[in-house]
Protein 1
Amino acid sequence: CSGPKSVIPVRNDLTFLDLTVQQIEHLNKKYDANVPLVLMNSFNTDDDTMKIIRKYSGFNVSIKTFNQSRYPRINKESLMPIPKSCRTDDDIEAWYPPGHGDFYQAFSNSGLLEEFVDQGKKYCFISNIDNLGATVDLNILNMCLDQSREFVMEVTDKTRADVKGGTLIQYEGKLRLLEGAQVPKEHEEDFKSVKKFNVFNTNNLW
């Protein structure tokens, strides 16, 4: 797939983004709310995304976008940055977007976090655009409110199809997320076991 994965058709010619916009519009209409859709792009997909979202201008959904950071690629021999300047356009292949883990810093740097806080918004639901099982579950939101939860991760039963995804472990007396990239090679099979690790991180976060 070239371009944003949000525009891949998945059902009756509707894309991941079409279905997500429909879900949030339904939520806003049902509860007379104003839940925005916020899309995190990279410098590779931002221009395409801005063109695509124009078609939703008549929908009852406010769509905001922001960009991930950009990091320079490193020469494996010299361990020096490959880019010769700070301009991405000078050599776009010399830069890369860091991915999901950059959300918090990039969201804050974009100014959107401050904007939403000023509007009185308190909770943010994060999911991958290609996860159609990710919906705004009011039961989880009410739990966050009732129990004053600052962070919630949605997990589900792990199957053999989920062996590469993150799981939860007890470490130094705390519940922590363990990702495959953190696991030493000699313990990879243990990590994939659905008996030893029976939950799977859906990457839906509150």
Protein 2
Amino acid sequence: MGKKGGGVRVKQIGGPKGGMNPSAMNPQKMMQEAMGDMMKSGMNNKALMMPQIPDDRSVLQKWPLNRSCQNEPHDKWQVVWPSNLDSNKTTKEGRKVGKTVGLPKPTLNDISEALQKIGIRHAIEPYKFLPRDPASKWDNFGRVRVELKTYLDDDDPDPIPVHPEISCKNDLYKVLCREIGKLDSRKVRLEVERRKALQEEEERKKEEAERLKEIKAKGADKKQGGN
């Protein structure tokens, strides 16, 4: 039989009986596929590396590495995301401090090193991401759980602050920003990143100049050929 009405046939995608394929809703898989399409279409001539994130995001790294800390329950510890301290983020994306107080792109290592410096127990969860900040799904992801107060027991109504300057989470944010800004390791990393950015910019300008030179040369050849 012939086709009627010139209709368009739509190919169904998904699981059995028309169900949606669960993998199609995986944001990490979707991002990888999108990046792959961009590279194939020539939108970006440089390799785009996506972080390898395990299926189990519940990995936990506690500090210090002594037995008492490792056995300590961390469910009452406060959560700090890099975005909470990032001056480049908006409040909608998770920033919790003023732009003049925050720092550009603090990392998990920055937060952990600052907490070690002031002697506060904490646990790193490197594979978590902040739902309100989509970029944290593939860039600067992870979070830190911080012990702000010591509880004598589960029903302790008056827990003891672990640091004299920190009585609440807002105090923690400010102290972290201050201490992270002092870190030599961060200063070295930012300087390396600055030099790398300058080098990439110089390479970009050089490539652009060569491209324009080729365009002019082709235009001149075409003009001579017409004469």
